[in-house]
Amino acid sequence: MARRRKPIINYQNVAHQFLIEITYLIILCMTGNLYFPLPDPTIDSISDLLDDFVKKLTKAQKGGSQEQGEMQDARKLLVNALRKLGLYLDKEADGDETKLRSTGFLLTHDPIPSAKDTFYLLHGKNPNEIYVVQKAVDKAVSYVFMYYVGENPPVDPTLWKLGDVVSTHRDSLKNMETLKKVWVRACAVLRKEGMQPWTQPLYIVLG
Asked: Which of 35, 79, 115, 140 is most solvent-facing, going by the fewest CB within 10 Å?
């Protein structure tokens, strides 16, 4: 019998940027989530904590020890709130992986990006949706995301399919195939310099 997967609720040691991105995804997935209409804590409170952390992180990058301390306090509040929310969702879902996947939380055995990772794929709100994050690039006017379904990424560049072109460094690719490897690559587009080099392709298996 397969072991029940549970949400990863400890984000104490993840990189600042990944903490921001996973919280953003959780807010996106949990807003209007019919499986969990009354989450505890509320999504509004999580959003407020995220905003506060982002503001204090920005100040800490240019400030001294006081700003660093305030940033760490704000981070701790956000991490604790995510832990509480994860425990609530785990209890309410009662082992239903479909419900847990709809929350944006990583589940046990999902890889956790490191501070060195600048491009990663996460499960989106729906079973056939991929949440894609590329590190924000200074002066980028858009980001291009392409995908390919297969055991390995294609050697022929013409086999890649356009997933989306957006103005932000994060996106959701919808209507992807499940139970197969879906490879994704991304590139930033600068106003003057044009398209930048593609990221190394990554894959994810949905479903």
From this structure: 115
